[in-house]
Amino acid sequence: MSGADSSKKLATLLKRLKTRFGPGVEKDPPTTPAWDEPLVDELVFSFLLWEATSPQARNAFKRLKESYIDYNELRVSLPVETAAILGERYPRGEERSGRLRAALFDLYKREYAVTFSSLADGGKRDVRAYLESLDGVPAYAVDRMMLLAFGAHAAPIDDRLRDLLADEGVIDSDTPCDEAASWLARQVKAEDALITHRILRAWADEQAPEHRKSRPSAGAAEDGRKARIRSEPRSEGRAESRSEARIESKPDAKADDKPGKRRADARKKTAKAED
Q1: Average pLDDT of the chain?
Q2: pLDDT in tens, 97-106
Q3: CB 43 within 8 A of CB 135
Q4: Alpha-carbon distance values, 99 to 39, 115, 162, 171 (Å)
Q5: Is the pLDDT of residue 264 over 60?
Q6: Is the alpha carbon torsion for 51, 52, 58, 64 positive or negative?
Q7: Element of type H or E holding 131
Q8: pLDDT value, residue 195
Q9: Which among 46, 192, 211, 246 counts the fewest CB atoms within 10 Å?
Q10: Are 218 and 179 in contact (CB under 8 A)?
Q11: Sequence-distant (≥ 6) Cβ neighbours of residue 29 within 8 angstroms
Q12: pLDDT value at residue 28
């Protein structure tokens, strides 16, 4: 990251993305019924969003709620079982499930339940230290929890978003995610942190390979249309050529009859001569 140049590129990017996605970008919090533990909901959903898309996370969150009675059952389940519920194609499924189990176990040891009740009256600095000390919790999940659940100034960044920002020349491709997150938080005002997070997340969702594959670009669609148009005249030309070839190769009945007629006439003349 090169100071003023990176800041300028970031400002240009955010302006473009705000125009594209606008203030109506979809909100982050889980939309499925909670297990009466909204903070744990946010922790689990943050785990699911890390290195994954929003649709993937929402579907996985719903499947977890349908498969387990409560977070305590999720806590005692084996990572391989949770990974199977997430689905074999879910990014980092086994690693994610193992990290989530470790975090819930650590939380249970501290609180004697799967809850964040002790954080109710804590300051933001203490809350961050608590979250960062939980086993297995990615920095992305900590930053997202601080931003959405505790109203702190934070900028969640995972490898997917870091790579997209690097492609835009905003940061270097080898910048660690925690450094990129700290830098981004310094570039964005506290009151703009939430909308910036949502816009960047929507952008990352749009750039995901599965999304781009399912929705071809306008340029690709136009290329396909032009290809079809170009192919139609050639098809008609080939059909006409084949038709002409068949016409040319069709025997001419009148032409074929002339030699036979001449031979018949010759036989008649011969017979008259002999008479």
Answers
A1: 80
A2: 999 999 999 9
A3: no
A4: 17, 17, 21, 28
A5: no
A6: negative
A7: helix 124-133
A8: 92
A9: 246
A10: no
A11: 41, 42, 45, 148
A12: 61
What token pair was written down for 192?
């703009």
The pair of structure tokens assigned to 222 is 């136009």
Residue 74 and residue 82 in contact, taking contact as beta carbons nearer than 8 Å? yes
For tokens 């920002």, what's the residue?
165
Residues 191-207, mean pLDDT to the nearest whole number: 94
Which pair of structure tokens corresponds to residue 190?
Answer: 């506290």
Architecture of domain 4-214: Orthogonal Bundle (1.10)
Cα–Cα distance between 105 and 263 in angstroms, integer? 109
Six-digit token string for 209 = 């390979």
Q: What is the mean pLDDT of residues 80-95?
A: 96
What is the value of pTM for the model shown? 0.74
Is the CB of residue 114 less than 8 Å from the CB of residue 37? yes
pLDDT of residue 213: 54
The single-letter DSSP state of residue 189 is -
